[in-house]
Amino acid sequence: MIPSLVILAAGIGSRYGSLKQLDKIGPSDETIIDYSIYDAIHAGFNKVVFVIRESIEKEFKEVFMKRLKGKIPIDYVLQELKTPDGIPFTGERTKPWGTGHAVLITEEKIKGPFAVINADDFYGRCGFQFLVRYYDNWSPDYENDYCMVGYEIGKTLSDHGAVSRGICKADRFSNLVEVIEQTHIEKRPQGIAYKNESGQFLRIPEDTIVSMNFWGFAPSIFRYLKIGFKEFIAENAGNPKAEFYIPTMVNTLVKSKRASVKILNCHEHWIGMTYKQDKKQVSAKIRELVDKKIYPENLWR
Asked: 128 and which of 18, 43, 71, 214 could share a cystine (Cβ 3.0–4.6 Å)?
């Protein structure tokens, strides 16, 4: 079955300092989103659903609705400060509840299997191809069979500061056993390490597989997200910085054996813009791929 693509583009970009979703990094003013959609179209995806904020809706639509017209069907939803059943939360909260919440609100736009990606990550072509193949023979009988495109951590880091990654463990059949979101991972003189809750740095091998929020889900995920989000809000209503992460929900489902997740290992280099200083390197990498004829000089000409 042909999957849809959900692009998470509502992030504020606190580390980056501006609206990086619309930052131009290609030779013809393309954004990272443009390259993801280009790869998705060529892999065989049939629809794109953007998750954005109301404050950027006008600017976002002016860029992408016109640019993608006739290329692939597109739709969008607004991620705002709304809770299920009107559950109250602290008035200090200034932004929505993260990636799990973002996926949850797309339910009415999705009819079959779908992929989820971040707007500011360049994943490379293989991940989109892998995911389309994975769901090629999908049916509702496999409603709890999910997948994840995994990357080697050494190929996913920024030279300019710490990043967040989902550290994965798999069995010998490449099924996900555990994914733990680590919010401070960086290159250090001794190697790659993450900072634990006690402030200690723990080493990670360079070939450790991590989640870059490139997921493949069946519609059953919405049922689990609804339950998980209600529980999350009830427990964190007074915490203005609490985040409802996709990996946290997935980890719960895998541990309880309510769902299985196949890891699709992609050996390409991820590139992204966590920090403002990353933009120059991202643009240079895109230029290199264009020079190699992997992408045209102008994606949508």
From this structure: 43
Q: Which residues, at least 6 apart from 291, have a Cβ–Cβ distance to it below 8 Å?
A: none
Rounded CA separation 199/274 (Å): 22
DSSP string, the chain: -PPEEEEE-----TTT-S-GGG---STTS--HHHHHHHHHHHHT---EEEEE-GGGHHHHHHHHHHHTTTTS-EEEEE--S--GGG----TT--S---HHHHHHTTGGG--S-EEEEETTEE--HHHHHHHHHHTTT--GGGTTEEEEEEEEGGGS--SSS-EEEEEEEE-TTSBEEEEEEEEEEEEETTEEEEE-TTS-EEE--TT-EEEEEEEEE-THHHHHHHHHHHHHHHHHTT-TT----HHHHHHHHHHTTS-EEEEEE--SPPEE-SSTTHHHHHHHHHHHHHHTTSS-SSTT-
pTM reported for the whole predicted model: 0.91
Q: DSSP for 162-185? A: -EEEEEEEE-TTSBEEEEEEEEEE
Closest CA to 97 of 249, 219, 217: 249
Class of domain 4-291: alpha beta
pLDDT digits (tens, 9 = 90+) for 186-238: 999 889 999 988 899 999 999 999 999 999 999 999 999 999 999 998 888 88
Cβ burial, residue 288 (10 Å; 0-12/13-18/19+): exposed
Cα atoms in the Cβ-side hemisphere of radius 13 Å centred on 10: 26
Mean pLDDT, the chain, rounded, equals 90
pLDDT of residue 13: 52
Rounded mean pLDDT of 252-275? 91
The amino acid occupying position 166 is: G
Q: Residue with structure tokens 């389309």? A: 132
pLDDT of residue 14: 47
